[in-house]
Amino acid sequence: MMKTLFLFVLFSLLIGVFTALGQDGIYDPDLAAKLKADDIGMKKYVMAFLYSGDRVAEYSKEERAEIQKGHMANISKLADMGKLILAGPFFGTESMRGIFIFDVETKEEAEELTNTDPAVKAGVLKMELREWYGSAAVMMVPEIHAKLQKPKN
Asked: Considering Cα of 6, then 88, then 57, then 77, what sign does the dihedral take?
């Protein structure tokens, strides 16, 4: 739990630092409105910390691979819906597996979305949800990422 809190605080501080460094003094009210930013350029999100679930050992390697395919498809679906803004795994083999950042108003809405994930349904992953106040610029990650990802051949 302390490790989660530490990572959460560290991530929050890093976003704040990068936001401050990126300021050039030119306020864009249209962009702020589009991103639902408050007066200091921030907004509320719900962050999900993904952990290894209690039922991982119940599945064969092949079954886990199929569950993972479903997990990745669900990530794409949630991103296409505009609800999942950022997702990614952590390196290493610890029980903390990755994060999601949702553009939703409540933890309950984020919980409904996480419960659509095949890995969560199967007990391969479990999630801890936290409300997070971060830079509204995070909302631009999907647009920027699409410009960085090479097309599949």
From this structure: positive
- pTM for the complete prediction? 0.81
Question: What does the block give as tokens for 99?
Answer: 């994060």
- How many other CB atoms sit within 10 Å of the CB of residue 59? 15
How many Å apart are CA 134 and CA 118, to the nearest integer?
A: 28
Tokens of 25: 């003094």
Q: What is the DSSP string of 110-148?
A: HHHHHTT-HHHHTTSEEEEEEEEEEEGGGGGHHHHHHHH
Mean pLDDT calculated for residue range 79-97: 93
Token pair, residue 145, equals 């990422």
Confidence of residue 94 (pLDDT cuts 50, 70, 90): confident
- Cα distance between residue 130 and residue 35, in whole Å: 20
Strand (E) positions, 53-116? 84-89, 96-102
Order of strands across the sheet that contains 42-52? 84-89, 96-102, 42-52, 125-135
pLDDT at position 10: 44
